[in-house]
Specification:
alpha/beta, 33% helix, seven-stranded mixed β-sheet, 18% strand, 13 helices
Length: 490
């Protein structure tokens, strides 16, 4: 039963990745849509299971909000003597590929392998298709309206004459190495939620332990001065959904209201254990200009590709501290506040990065004017403007908050009452404060938050070039900027 659960996890991954593929934008095919003619009984079984109807499959997977609803004909051929010619034929039979080469676009799968196939043999570089690419490649073929012929989406060739979809622009859902790791993982850990725990050379668990040190120092300071805070972002999601960190997460988030954050700023410099920790803000680190602040672990390194540009900036392992400010109760004013916040945040970031303004490809004239302005304006002045915009409504008795310093700014306002009361929830080995209305807040932040992201996307998200746990981990540091030390990779 446990094994079946993890196989379902991979099959859900396959379905979601396929449905969310950027190439799926074709209309209903004019003939018979897709037809499956394979000797592998499991592929047929899985295909039937993910189809809402045997002849038509419709999906609208709510992942990014940009999905296109699909409606296409899906048929299962009993033998090679098909009565109708499909738009795309998916087959692992060489004779069938040859027979229909001139009649339709054929996706030749060759030896199908990949996570989720119970009887998979060891894959080879000559395998034509991985399980994740069977329908993704077929959708690509239909969307491009490819000419008749035989195609494959494999890793280095196949045993029939065929054109590579990858060389034609198809992006594989998962890499060969990732598929191999997923297969190995599902067999070794059938009762665990899959993630790429080999991230950072297999040191993700060590990183998690170091992050809890930062969290506990922050928690100690807040409790000593009766300052309210909550687990936030992915940490709150992890506490609710996993009882600890999201297994593939590589940072921690906490959040506060502006009133409590102001009190925190008054005490943090005198209260923090300076030997082991560092409170990072633009006031304490001249090369740091994020709108949110951090607590860093001294004697460690967690350097991203972006932060590596600033050699004097503290690069230690960190937790992020986000602030929720008041915003207007009127919708139109909320939208204006969000736009203004996005714009001034962008100004500060591009000043920091040293690049011209390009506000999501919009407001080009305004961006050109803003670029001239930031090029002749001191960073501290820009940050003061940013703070005034973010905190503008804090002076008014409104009943709405927004994520002015965080990732969910575009989601707009939410009721301030959601952060009025707190509760305690297990997060790792201890309990920490969470909003009593955590369900509403998580829905605001993530939508259907109990649904896991596709298995093949469950990896740490930071673009890290160097990680070193110092005295908190007994291993050799990794440094991609100066070469990999030891035998492990990030």
């Amino acid at each position: 039963m446990q094994y079946n659960n993890i196989v379902k996890d991979y099959m859900d991954d396959w379905t979601q990745r396929t449905a969310n593929a950027a190439c799926i934008s074709f209309t209903k095919p004019s003939r018979q849509g897709m037809m499956l003619l394979c000797t592998d009984p499991q592929l047929k079984t899985v295909t039937e299971n993910i189809a809402e109807k045997k002849e038509f499959y419709c999906t609208d997977v709510p992942l990014s909000g940009r999905e296109i609803k699909l409606c296409f004909r899906l048929s299962f051929a009993k033998d090679e003597m098909m009565q109708e010619i499909p738009d795309v034929l998916v087959t692992d039979i060489p004779a069938a590929a040859e027979k229909f080469r001139t009649k339709c676009a054929v996706l030749y799968t060759g030896r199908i392998f990949g996570a989720g196939f119970i009887h998979s043999k060891k894959p080879s570089k000559n395998s034509a298709t991985a399980i994740h690419d069977v329908f993704g490649a077929a959708f690509f073929m239909a969307g491009k309206n490819l000419k008749n012929g035989v195609y494959y989406a494999g890793f280095g060739g196949c045993n029939v004459k065929a054109k590579s979809l990858v060389s034609g622009g198809y992006v594989q859902a998962v890499s060969y190495d990732d598929v191999c790791f997923m297969m190995k993982y599902q067999k070794a850990h059938p009762d665990k939620i899959f993630c790429f725990d080999n991230t950072y050379g297999g040191r993700l668990a060590d990183l998690h332990r170091a992050l809890f040190l930062c969290l506990d120092e922050f928690d100690r300071i807040c409790k000593a001065h009766d300052i309210n805070y909550f687990l936030g972002g992915g940490s709150l999601l992890g506490a609710v959904r996993h009882g600890g960190m999201i297994p593939w997460d590589d940072d921690m988030d906490v959040m506060m209201t502006r009133k409590d954050y102001t009190r925190f700023l008054e005490v943090v410099e005198s209260e923090i254990d300076r030997e082991d920790f560092f409170f990072q803000s633009s006031d304490t680190d001249s090369e740091y200009h994020s709108i949110f602040t951090k607590i860093r672990l001294n004697g460690t390194a967690f350097t991203t590709r972006f932060s590596s540009r600033f050699k004097n900036m503290h690069q230690g392992i960190f937790i992020d501290i986000f602030v929720h400010d008041k915003t207007a109760d009127i919708k139109v004013l909320q939208k204006l506040h969000v736009f203004a916040t996005l714009f001034v945040r962008s100004m500060v970031f591009h000043k920091w990065e040293g690049t011209p303004m390009h506000f999501y490809g919009k407001a080009k004239l305004l961006c050109r004017l803003a670029t001239r302005y930031i090029n002749h304006t001191d960073m501290h002045k820009l940050e003061r403007i940013q703070e005034k915009v973010v905190t503008f409504f804090d002076r008014f008795p409104t009943h709405s908050l927004y994520d002015g310093t965080g990732e969910h700014l575009r989601h707009g306002a939410f009721p301030a009452r959601w952060l009025k009361k707190s509760a305690e929830m297990k997060f790792g080995d201890k309990v920490y404060p969470v909003p009593a209305n955590y369900d509403e807040y998580l829905r605001y932040s993530y939508g259907y938050y109990m649904t896991l992201i596709p298995a093949s996307l469950r990896r740490a998200g930071h673009d890290v070039v160097k990680i070193d746990l110092g005295k908190y981990g007994a291993f050799t540091p990794i440094d991609k900027t100066g070469g990999i030390k030891g035998n492990e990779r990030v």
